[in-house]
Amino acid sequence: MARGNNPQGEKWHVSIDKPIISDGEIHHESAEIITITNRAIATSGNYRNYKTDSLGNRYAHIISPDNGRPAKSEHSKRNRHSSRLHDSRRLCHNADGAWI
Question: pTM for this one?
Answer without folding.
Answer: 0.58
